[in-house]
């Protein structure tokens, strides 16, 4: 695997207890991408579930799409950085080709934003990633989950399942976020921002 590959890392917590929670939407997006690419993520010694393949399309019509490594951590959110860096180092992928996909309470549900760098906004997975990579300069695909109503603690909110009304549109949001990842890889960050930020 050359450094021409991309790493798409879906942030979240392990196990069935967490798989349907707001904090795991990044892993839901990676699962959608794996389905599109026809690959399965397998548990590895890198402390991550990993699968490799190619996008179905690329910048040049008729040629194979870019090679992509999809991964999720087998550990908890606040330990994301170690497994992510291990996968990146194993495949020789630098921060400029790393895309993290994660929940974001600072933007409304059903909203997608993308950026390189910036703060972590109190997100433990991003804080761990930045610490492990030694840089903030990696792509973040931010999937909005909104803020809790009333006095509910934010930590409890992101570890809870989506509301019934949200679950009805969740598959579309996950699909759109997967589209954003593919567009970022094939076309670059600015087209993603132009398309998805305008919908906010």
From TrEMBL:
An MF annotation (GO) of this entry: hydrolase activity
CDD domains: PTH (cd00462)
Residues annotated as site: Discriminates between blocked and unblocked aminoacyl-tRNA: 13
Functional note: Catalyzes the release of premature peptidyl moieties from peptidyl-tRNA molecules trapped in stalled 50S ribosomal subunits, and thus maintains levels of free tRNAs and 50S ribosomes. Hydrolyzes ribosome-free peptidyl-tRNAs (with 1 or more amino acids incorporated), which drop off the ribosome during protein synthesis, or as a result of ribosome stalling.
NCBIfam families: pth
Residues at the active site: 23
Class of the enzyme per the UniProt entry, highest EC level: hydrolase
Protein name: Peptidyl-tRNA hydrolase
InterPro entries with a match to the protein in the record: Pept_tRNA_hydro, Pept_tRNA_hydro_CS, Pept_tRNA_hydro_sf
Name of encoding gene: pth
Predominant place of localization: cytoplasm
EC number assigned by the record: 3.1.1.29
Zinc listed as a keyword: no
Cellular compartments annotated: Cytoplasm
Catalytic activity: an N-acyl-L-alpha-aminoacyl-tRNA + H2O = an N-acyl-L-amino acid + a tRNA + H(+)
Keyword tags: Cytoplasm, Hydrolase, RNA-binding, tRNA-binding
Self-association state and partner proteins as the record states: Monomer.
Organism per entry: Brevibacterium ammoniilyticum
Gene3D superfamilies, A to Z: Peptidyl-tRNA hydrolase
Site (described: Stabilizes the basic form of H active site to accept a proton): 103
Residues the entry annotates as binding tRNA: 18, 76, 78, 124
Similarity comment: family membership: Belongs to the PTH family.
One Pfam family hit: Pept_tRNA_hydro
């Amino acid at each position: 695997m050359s450094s021409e590959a991309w790493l798409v890392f879906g942030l979240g917590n392990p196990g069935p207890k967490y798989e349907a929670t707001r904090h795991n939407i990044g892993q839901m997006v990676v699962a959608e991408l794996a389905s599109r690419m026809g690959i399965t993520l397998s548990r590895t010694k890198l402390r991550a579930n990993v699968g490799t393949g190619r996008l179905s399309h690329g910048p040049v019509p008729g040629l194979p799409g870019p090679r992509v490594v999809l991964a999720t951590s087998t550990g908890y959110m606040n330990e994301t950085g170690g497994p992510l860096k291990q996968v990146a180092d194993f495949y020789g992928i630098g921060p400029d080709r790393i895309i993290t996909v994660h929940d974001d309470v600072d933007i409304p549900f059903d909203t997608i934003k993308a950026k390189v760098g910036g703060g972590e906004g109190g997100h433990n997975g991003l804080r761990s990633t930045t610490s492990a990579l030694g840089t903030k300069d990696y792509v973040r695909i931010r999937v909005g989950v909104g803020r809790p109503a009333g006095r509910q603690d934010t930590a409890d909110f992101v570890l809870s399942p989506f509301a019934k009304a949200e679950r009805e549109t969740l598959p579309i949001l996950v699909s759109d976020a997967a589209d954003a990842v593919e567009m970022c890889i094939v076309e670059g960050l600015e087209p993603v921002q132009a398309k998805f930020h305008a919908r906010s």
